[in-house]
Sequence to fold (1164 residues):
Amino acid sequence: MSSSEKQKVVVNTAPPYVALRPNDKLATVMTVATSDSSGGAGIEADLKTFTAHKCYGLTCLAALTAQTPKNIYSIHEVPREHFKLALTANMRDMRVDAIKTGMLTKNSVEVLIEALSEIEPTKRPALVVDPVLVASSGATLVSDDSVVQQIKLLAPLASLLTPNIHEASKLLGCSEEMLKLNTVDDMISRAKDLQKETGCPNILLKGGHVSWEGTELKGIVTDVLYTASNECIVYQSDRCDSKNTHGTGCTLASAIASNLAHGETLEHAVYGGIQYVHNAIQVGCEVTRSHIEENGPINHVYAIKMPLLEMVKDLCYSAHALAINSERELAAKDARGRSGSSSSQNSSSTSSLVSQIRDSGHFFEYLISDPRVKPHWESYVNHEFVRKVANGTLEREKFRFFLEQDYAYLDNYAQIHCLAASKAPAVEDFDKSVEIVTKIKTEMEKHREKMMSHFKIEDMKHFDTIRMGPALRNYARFFDDVAKNGSWVHLCAALSPCLMGYGHALRKVEKDITVDKDDIYYAWCQDYLAPWYVEGMEEGLILLDRICQMTDDWDTLCEIYAAVCKLETEFWDAALHYQESN
Amino acid sequence: MSSSEKQKVVVNTAPPYVALRPNDKLATVMTVATSDSSGGAGIEADLKTFTAHKCYGLTCLAALTAQTPKNIYSIHEVPREHFKLALTANMRDMRVDAIKTGMLTKNSVEVLIEALSEIEPTKRPALVVDPVLVASSGATLVSDDSVVQQIKLLAPLASLLTPNIHEASKLLGCSEEMLKLNTVDDMISRAKDLQKETGCPNILLKGGHVSWEGTELKGIVTDVLYTASNECIVYQSDRCDSKNTHGTGCTLASAIASNLAHGETLEHAVYGGIQYVHNAIQVGCEVTRSHIEENGPINHVYAIKMPLLEMVKDLCYSAHALAINSERELAAKDARGRSGSSSSQNSSSTSSLVSQIRDSGHFFEYLISDPRVKPHWESYVNHEFVRKVANGTLEREKFRFFLEQDYAYLDNYAQIHCLAASKAPAVEDFDKSVEIVTKIKTEMEKHREKMMSHFKIEDMKHFDTIRMGPALRNYARFFDDVAKNGSWVHLCAALSPCLMGYGHALRKVEKDITVDKDDIYYAWCQDYLAPWYVEGMEEGLILLDRICQMTDDWDTLCEIYAAVCKLETEFWDAALHYQESN
Fold:
C-alpha cells in the first residue's frame, strides 16, 4: 500500500482551560432507581442531569421498564442479590457524595435502608428521595400503599423528600381535596405536616400540579421548602406553556442531589434545581415520532455546546482538510477572526436570499416586516413613554429613573461593544467597535453632567450606586448571552434595535414635540433627531445589509431582532410604570 | 402561620440564548449495551457521552453488571422478551438517529439484527458497533468465540466497526503477533482485511494498545479509518500519561455515534470522537476510594460548566438573599461587573495570604518563585533567541518570522484586552483596558512601518495574510479560553507574563547588546529597556498585587502563570527553529 493514498490528521488539541487541574475530584452522585428505556425519566434522566451538572454519575438499578411516552410495555425487576452487590460495591469502592432515589421496589428499599443504616449518620452521603408512586406511571410492580410504607421507612435517613401534591396526599393518608390548598400558607402547613409524618428533616412540597384557579397564584408554580430548622422558602416561577413535562420529578431531585454533591447549601441546591427544570421544560425537545401525542421529555442538554462544533472553531483545530459543510466553515472563520478575512466572507454574497433583499430595499425593512418582529417593533417605536416626553406630560421622577437606567445601560452597552470588537471579522470592524466604545464613554460623561445639573446631584459616586432594575437586567443578560454564545453576526443584530428604534420612535412624534425648548425633555428628543444620530442610523442600515450576506440563517436574526425590540419596549414600560416607592 | 417567617424567592430566569428555538429536534442516539453500575463504562458512559454531545440518549439494556474498577461482582442478563419490547418500543415511538452497541448477549444480538433487518437499508439509523469482547472485562456471560460470531452477523448492518488490536485479532481469527503491526501501513492493511472479513463498510482500527516500541511512532496513538470508498485517514495524537482509561472504548464509539446523529461526516465524527476521548483521558477524574488501585474512569464532563454557578453569575439571578459562600459571591460580583464595585472587592483584602505577601514583596515575586512557575519563567527570560538578537547572530529570516508572528500576536492581544475590558470590575479597569487596546493598535502601526521599510514590503495586504504558526495558535487559544471561561482576575494573570517577561529578558542581556546601533535588532532590544516600558511593568506589578487580593485561589493563578510562561518560551522556540522551507 502506498502512503500517497492516505491522509494524516493530527488530533492533539489540549483540553480546555476549564479543566486546568487534572484528576479533579468530580462530585459524585448515585441514582438508585429504575431504567426508562425511552430516556425521558428514570436513571436515564438522572444520568443526563448529573452530567449536565458536571457530576460523575453512578447507578444502582432496582428495575427496568420498556417504555415510551405512549405506554409502559414491560417491567423487569432486578434480582435482590444483584441489586445488593451493585449497591455495596459502589459504596465500598467508589466515592459517593450524594444519592438520589426514584422508583424503587420492596427489595431495593430494604437493601438500601440496610446499607445506609450501617454508616454512621454523620458520614452518610446526602440523600434526596423522590417519592415516586408507581401506580401513577402505570406500572404494577408494587402497590401505592406498599410504596408509601417503604418511603416512610427511608425518609428518616434522607436529607430531603420531594413529594408533589399527589404524593403528599398519599404520604399524609388523605385525598388531595383534604389537603385544602388555597394559599401559600396552606402549602407551608402541609410541608410541616409531612416533616412530622415522615421524619424527614427537610421537605420540598412541589406545587406544579396545583392550578390555583381563581387566586392570584394562577399561572405561577409555587414550591415550598420547609427545613429542619423550621425555616421556610417559597420558590415561585412562571408556569411554562409546554406539554413536554415527562421526567420533571426525576430531574428535579437529581439536580438538587448534584448541587448538594457540589457542596451547595440546601436552599441553593433547590433554587438551582428548580431553575434547571424550569429551563429544561421551557426549551423542550422533539424526540418522539409524529404519531405520539403524549407528553414528550424535557430538554436536559439545553445549555450544552456540541464539542465537535467547538473544536472546529478552535484555533488549534487541525483537521481543516476533512470535508466540513459550509455553515461550519463560516462559523469557524467567524471564530478564527481576522485570519478568515472579510473578503472571503463576502464571497458567499450571491445567495438568492441576498438578491431578494437587493430587490426589496434594506435588510432592516425585511427584519421589521417579519411577522415575529413586527408587533414588537411597533410597540417599541410607538411607545407612550416617548409621546409623554414629547408633550411634557411624563412625571419627572419617571424620567429620572429612565435616565439613570439608561446610564447603566450605556455602561453595559460599552462592555458589549468590547465583546463585539473581540469577535470582529475584519480590522475595520474591530476599529469601528473600539471607536463606538470611546463614543459611548463620552456620551456617558455628557449624561452625567446633564443629570448632575438638572437633578442637583452633587456626588459623582451617585452614578456608581445606580441599581439595575429588572427590565435592564433582562436586557443586559440577553446582550451578554448573545455576546458570549453567538457569532459576531448575531451580536450585530442584537445591537441594532437600540440604535434604529430611538431614531424611528422620535421621528414618529417629531411634529408633536410641544414641550418647552428649555426643558430637558426637549433636548432629549432632539438628540435622536440630530444629523449625527441620523448618520449613525445610516451606518446601521449598511451594517445590517452586510451581516445578512454572512449567514443563510435569517430566522435566527429575526428572532434576535424580535427579542431585543421586546426588551426595548419593556425598558420603556418599566420607566412609564415606575413609582418612587419601588 | 404568619407570612413573616417565610422567604420568597422568584426563580424565573429565561433559558439561555443558546436555546433560542424551543422544541429543537435534538439529535438522538440509542445505546444497546450493558450497564456498568460504577458509571465508568457501559450504558452509563454512553449516556454521559451523548449528553456531553448535546444529544438525547435512549437505552436498551442487554445485561447489568455490578462492578467497580476493582472487579465485576455480578452480572445479570435481561430477559430476551423485555429487551425486545424495549428495542421495538424505542424504534416505533421514538426518533432514533443513531445506534451504538457495546457489550451484548446472544439474545440481544439476535433481536437487534431482526429489528434492523426489518428496516429498509436506506432508512436504517447510523450504527456504530464497538465489538467488545466480554472475556477481557472478566465477565463470563458468553465466550469470546460466540461474541465474535455475533459481531460478524451484526457487522454488515453497521456503519462503522471500532475494534482495538485485541478485538481485531479475534475478528481476523489470529493472534495479536500475527497481525504484524510494524508500520502505519500494516495497520491500514489490517483495517482493509477487517472490512473484507466482517462486511462492515467502514473500519476504525484503534491503535491505543500498540506500543510501537523502537519505532518513530512511540509515544503517539495511531488510529486508522478505512472507509467504504477505500479511502484511509490516519489519526495521530500524543499518548496520554494517565492510568484513567476505563471506558475509553465505549466513550469513543458513543462520541462518534453522537456526531453522526448530528449529521457530521464519518471522517469528522471520528476526529471529534478521538479528540473528546483524548481530552477526557488527559483531564481524568478521581472518583474511586483510596484503596482502589485499578484504572479509574475518564472524565466525561471536562467541558461542562456547573449550571448553578452559571446562574449565580447571571444578571437575572434573583436569590441573592439565600446564603452562598464567599467564593461564589466574589465570582458573581466579578461577573456582574461594575455593580459590585472595586471597593467592595478590596474589602476582602485582609486574608492572611495577603499579609504574607505584603511581608515578602510583590505578588509577582511569589508567582515566579512558585515551583510550578519557576522553571518555565527561567526558560522564558533566559531564552537564546534574545541573546542571539542582542549579539546580532540570529538569522534574519528567523527574526522576520518572529516579527510577523508577533504582529499577529498583537492583533490577538488587542482582542483579548477587549474581552478584559468587558469583564473589568471597576470603571478605571475598563478605561485602562480600552487605553491599552488603543496603544496596541498604535504599536501595530509602528510594527508595520518598521517591517515595510526593513524588509521592503510594499503591499499593506501582506499583513492580512500572515498565517499564525502552531506556537502562536496554542498561545492565542489559551488566551481565548481564559478570556471566555475565566474571571477577570484569571485573565489579568494570563496577560501578565508577556509584559513582565520581555522586560526581564532584555534586562538580562542588557550588558551584552553588541549588535550595531543602526540594526533593527538594536532598536528591538532598546524598546523593552525604554523608560515607558519599565513604567508599564511597574503598573503590571501593582495590578498583580491587586488581583491577588481578589481571590484565595492562588494555585490557579500560579498554574496560569506557568502555562503562559511555557507558551512564551515556545513562541521564541518556534522563531529560533524556524526554517524558510517550513
